[in-house]
Amino acid sequence: MRTVEQKKRVVVTGLGAITSAGPTADHLRRALHGESTCLREVSLFSTEGLRVHIGGEVERIPSSALATTAARRRGSRSDLLALCAVEEALTRSGLDLAQTSRERIATALGSSTGGMLETESFYATRLEGRPAGRFRRQLLSTSVGAPTELVAACVGALGPRLSPSTACSSSAIAIAMGLLWIRSGAADVVLAGGTDALCRMTFTGFHALQALSPSPCQPFDRGRQGISLGEGAGVLVLESEEHATARGAAILGEIAGAGISCDAAHPTAPHAQSRGAIQALSTALADAGVEPHELDYVNAHGTGTPQNDVCEATAIRTVLGEAAGRVPVSSTKGLIGHLLGAAGAVECIVTLLAVAEGAAPPTFGLVDPDSECMLDHVLGRARTGTLATAASNSYGFGGNNCTLIVRAA
Amino acid sequence: MSEPIVVTGLGFVTPLGTGIEEVWSAFTEHRSGVRLLGEDDPRTARGVDPNPLPPSGRAGLVRGFQPRDHVKSPHLRRMDWFSRMVVAATAQAFSDAATSDLDDEARSRCAIVIGSRFGNQRETSRYLERVIRAGPCAGQPLLFPNLVLNAAAGYAAIELGLRGPNLTVSEHEASGEAAVANAMDLLRGGLADLVVVGGADEFGEVYLDALRERRLLDPESVPPGSPRRSTRGTMVPGEGAAALVLETASHARARGRAPYAAVACARSGALPAAPYGFPEPTAAAERLLALTGNGSGAPLQVAGLIGGASGAAPRDAIDGALLEALRARQAEPVTYVRLDRLVGEWGGRGALAVALASLAIARGNLPALDPGSPEAAAAIAPGRILVPGAARGGVLVPVVVESAAN
Questions:
Q1: What is the pLDDT of residues B210-265, one digit of tens each?
Q2: CA distance A263 to A276
Q3: Could you tell me which CATH class the domain A257-408 is placed in?
Q4: Interface contacts A/B by beta carbons within 8 Å
Q5: CA-nearest residue of chain A to B176?
Q6: What are A115-165's pLDDT values in tens digits?
Q7: N or C: fewer beta carbons within 10 Å in chain A?
Q8: Domain B5-262 adopts which CATH fold?
Q9: Where in chain A are the domains?
Q10: Treating both helix axes as pointing N-terminal to C-terminal, what angle do B281-292 and B313-329 enclose, rounded to 10 degrees?
């Protein structure tokens, strides 16, 4: 019999998500059960000459009450997306900042490109010999650490800070580190998640790699052609159970465990035998004290590329064994695109919503599952039932893998 | 009380030189790595640096580094300069920690954490300029994977076969110190048994432009012929990579590896600051010291300070306030080292400071390097050395290194 080490419980008391589905997590929740994709023609920059023109672009970023004048003037699009998600998460948590020790509030926001969109505008003005204006002023705020610093400064959070940048697993890792900080007693509250704006670099880069799908991506489908990019931010308010209970907060769910690994095999391609993904999922389950057969849902990374989907399906089947045939699996990327550094956090929010509502959302665009990706896919419409425990997978360039285990409240 | 974390390996690719002995002798002899790049510099030889350097004046530039001497991976030819420095420094540190006996299973419990502010700047510039000039179709598939900040850490994992957590973190000027703090979190949280932690940044256009825009550059560091020659700054930009191997004392003991030093504290906190601004210096000094006390008990006494002064007045003032606070509260003299005079300013430089502090502890010698300090001539056997990470947005990450025998 396995002995499960007693660990401090880490609960979620607030969440916020801004995506192409809309500026709140509620917009995202409705879209998950809707019938149309949120991917549309990208307007932030020119896609002329490319064979792909769609992405999950956020139509409007509402002005955040948290944003200071400097933040509004110099914040990058990624910064402003993050502030929007943080404001929603804090409001939903009911956390009274005036009654909370600021030194016990930590901030961990992941991003893969930070203010790259603004860096690109700076280069464009410079190459065209035009005055760089506000883009020049923004240069020091374009690093991937800028959203964390801006959010913490606007909220007044004075606890530990971290800005992980591990490509598409960045925000999942930020949540994993938040879990670690609360368990270790380094913080009582952690604003954890991530943000990424669409930019020319990632759009043209994935296009050059022939990894972009011309139509909304179809994870795990036999006819899948690659990924669809998106943008947005997702933020969770994590608290120790004691802290949340003491202030009478409504608990939305629990982050029960995390597993982080590296393939150490190839700069971009997943390990052929899914070694790292298997390690991340099995480590996360062990960390949470959950047996594979106890999982009720897996929110897959599910990018829609031929190789990634096969490797992820292999990892899930390997770790779950026989249970893989009856654990519903779905991906949100056909709906809102791949949010890169923000994907892990937004998908963790989708997973939390799924266990809270007892409804595993379907994989938008999946019609004809690939025999090499055989799993219990959620097709067409949500699968309802009791979902007590779920996993959310995130993988990224550099061979990075992170799995989070989520429990219902 | 948690188990001590010790430093068991070191690696350097810096303006002071490459490898422990080259760097240590330049450091103790105050031989600066700040220089002008000459036309016949080995740096420009084929196979060393894949990208041309931007026009510049004086800078802390890496010298004498031959990537092929350190990197075995076939991916070397595709690596950018930033990745080459990171992979070489981490490989040196891993080898220095006598890790050849770690099997595949043990390597699945070994992590990598790299701190960097901007990462691969020059290939990013090359890529963007091409896309902007020639249009969206001009994206280069071979270049793109190198542009994510964590590409270097990924290459290092491949080189060393390390399958544990692989993180890249960015906290502006305190990126190196933040990486060390994160590595401590991974070890204390049981996510890894051993962490190769490093800090790195390359000398590139985005950073130069940002400094030029703010008129922070030292006049000698402004590129010749630049239209913005006027400056009031004293900042000299730089580049480099440094890496350390951290593990628990019992893990090191079980492997029979004697440590250089122990990390007594590495903890992140913050103070209110304007977005993108530094915190007020006196309050920053007090908070940095309070963080060394881990929230309970008095701040640690320190004998040495390898500061983060960079030539940016608000950051320099934090070192000044810290020295004043230390001298006011402890009888023990404090030796101060200004590293930017030797290697220039770069975001991951804090890891170099922590690595040099570990060497100084092991070798019983921290050479003072601050012409304005009354102890300038004194080189003392240090007790504890503080590396005070402080960055824009108010982030503070003090790292304290002490003898492993403490």
A1: 777 777 888 888 776 665 555 678 899 999 999 999 999 999 999 999 999 999 99
A2: 4
A3: alpha beta
A4: 257
A5: A162
A6: 999 989 888 888 888 776 666 667 666 789 999 999 999 999 999 999 999
A7: N
A8: Peroxisomal Thiolase; Chain A, domain 1 (3.40.47)
A9: 10-246, 257-408
A10: 50
